[in-house]
Amino acid sequence: MHGNKRKKEKGDELVDYIRKGPWKKEEDEVLLSHVSKYGPRDWSSIRSKGLLQRTGKSCRLRWVNKLRPNLKNGCKFTAEEERVVIELQAQFGNKWAKIASYLSGRTDNDVKNFWSSRQKRLARILQASSSTSNSKSHRNKPKPHHLPNFQAAKLSSSSEGESSSSKPQPCSFSCNDNSEVIKMVALPDLFKPELPNSEPEEFAAPLEINKSSSNMEQTPFPNELQTDLTPFSFGDQDLLARIDDPSFADFFGPLGAYELGLAPQHTIGFPFFDPSEASCRMGSRLGISKSYDSVFDDFPVDMFDQMDPPSIPSKL
DNA sequence: AAGTCTATCAACCGCTCCGCA
DNA sequence: TTGCGGAGCGGTTGATAGACT
């Protein structure tokens, strides 16, 4: 992949040579020197001046993704950052640069990579789930009790349709227990409510638990969201019972608890929201001590066994 | 210990947007 | 008004490290 593109003209004299691939330290230094002199602009002049054999594009990318000050290089996404990304992706779609602008020290590439690996992981979980349920091979995986009996799931994929960007599909599931209704976004990228294209100030987290017998804080959906949802029901009322169970959060994992609305809601900040401090506070408040790799790490492998096999996008 | 799988990161490519002549 | 070039964005790919079998 990483090769060098070169043009040879005027005999064998090398008149144009574009270096590709990993950046060397010396190249970084040259780039930093240029930015300190002229600011982060005029990228193409870096090559035209003969400072680097890189395209302006490549220089800009290197600066934005690696050399820019205050970047959180090598830092995993915190639980709060994950939550912010999930919620903003539901609102904006795959507008990674826009989403990144809400996270201090994160680039669009970071967000994109995070989301991509999350999608892959989820697809794998679903695929494993459907294959194990088809083959009935549960020998090695103890089946978690109290799984909801999903009857339908409408899946959406960021890679299908006219554009892989944006257009989250409306979907949620609901659970009816007499008069009690739970609506939630269980797996944010699979069950996404269609959010109005609103500005951040208007943003409301697409998470809600309404249960009259619950003492949980209620976060009502805006009406327009309620009407946009495509609910389906499942009959297992154990889930309802377990929501009041302190161990329920463990069942879904800490972040699952966030997404199910079991954790305190936070308000997303405006561009350059820095969740690091908040996440520390939140984590200690919830007794969270480990660093979360992902929303799904703590999901039982076959939690989707009772779902109808979804149509997995061919490519994620 | 070795092979395989998975997650993550870094960088490229193609496309679109925007300013300018 | 239009064409051009630079900048920015999103999708994709390849390398690599770590986990798993």
Task: Explain what the structure shows.
With 316 residues, the protein is mainly alpha-helical. The chain folds into two domains: 5-67, Homeodomain-like (Arc Repressor Mutant, subunit A); 79-285, no CATH class. The chain has ten helices and four strands. The structure holds a DNA duplex (21 and 21 nucleotides).
Provide a concise account of the structure shown.
The protein has 316 residues and is mainly alpha-helical. The chain is 36% helix and 6% strand. It binds a DNA duplex (21 and 21 nucleotides) through helix 3 and helix 6.
The general outline is elongated
Q: Outline the low-pLDDT stretches.
A: 1-15, 135-269, 275-316
**Radius of gyration based on Cα positions:** 23 Å
Strand tally: 4
Distance between the termini: 21 Å
Assembly state of the chains shown: single chain
Helix content: 25-40%
The portion of residues forming beta strands comes to 5-15%
Largest beta-sheet characterization: 2 strands, antiparallel
Mean pLDDT reading: 54
Helix/sheet category: mainly alpha
Main location: nucleus
Region (Disordered): 126-172
Biased composition (Low complexity): 156-172
Domain HTH myb-type: 18-71, 72-123
List keywords for this structure.
316 residues, mainly alpha, Arc Repressor Mutant, subunit A, two-stranded antiparallel ribbon, two-stranded antiparallel sheet, 10 helices, 36% helix, 6% strand, elongated, disordered N terminus, DNA-binding
